[in-house]
C-alpha cells in the first residue's frame, strides 16, 4: 500500500502565505486565519480572564492591570465585571 500524499494543488493552511491567499479568495475568514496563526505559534492561546473565551485578535483585546496582575479581556463588559469582582483584593 502506498503512503498517502497531499495533492499538489491543495493550499497549505499552515503557511502564512497560503492562509493570506485563502483569505483574499474568500475561502477562509480573517478570524480563521488568526486562529491558525495562533495555532502555528508557541501553542499558547490567550483567553479572557473573565469568561475564558479564546481571544482571536489580541490587538482588539482589553489589557488591564488589576491588583498588580496583568489580565486580558475579550470585551469591556468582561473587564468591568472582573474589575468589580476583584476590587477589594
Topology record:
Elements: H1 16-24, H2 30-40, E1 62-66, E2 69-73, H3 76-85
Helix pairs in contact: 1-2
Describe the fold and architecture.
It is a single chain. By secondary structure, the protein is α+β, with helices and mostly antiparallel strands. It folds into two domains: 1-44, no CATH class; 45-89, no CATH class. It has three helices and two strands. It has helices at 16-24, 30-40, 76-85, and strands at residues 62-66, 69-73. Strands 1-2 form a two-stranded antiparallel sheet. Strand 1 and strand 2 form a beta hairpin. Helix 1 runs antiparallel to helix 2 (30-40). The longest helix has 11 residues, at 30-40. The radius of gyration is 18 Å and the shape is elongated.
**What is the H-and-E element order?**
HHEEH
How would you describe the oligomerization state of the chains in this entry? single chain
What structural class should be given to the helix and strand makeup? alpha+beta
Q: Provide a count of the helices.
A: 3
Count of DSSP strands: 2
Share of helix among residues?
A: 25-40%
Task: Report the C-alpha radius of gyration, rounded.
Answer: 18 Å
Q: Which regions are unreliable across 5 or more consecutive residues at pLDDT < 50? A: none
Mean pLDDT: 79
Question: Looking across the biggest beta sheet, what order are the strands in?
Answer: 1-2
Shape: elongated
How many structural domains? 2
Distance between the termini: 64 Å
Amino acid at each position: 500500500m502506498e503512503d498517502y500524499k497531499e495533492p499538489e494543488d491543495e493550499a497549505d493552511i499552515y503557511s502564512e502565505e497560503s492562509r493570506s491567499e485563502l483569505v483574499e479568495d474568500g475561502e477562509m475568514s480573517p478570524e480563521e486565519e488568526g486562529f491558525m496563526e495562533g495555532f502555528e505559534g508557541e501553542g499558547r492561546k490567550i483567553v479572557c480572564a473573565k469568561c475564558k473565551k479564546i481571544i482571536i485578535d489580541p490587538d482588539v483585546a482589553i489589557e488591564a492591570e488589576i491588583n498588580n496582575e496583568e489580565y486580558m479581556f475579550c470585551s469591556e463588559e468582561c473587564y468591568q465585571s472582573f474589575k468589580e469582582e476583584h476590587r477589594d483584593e
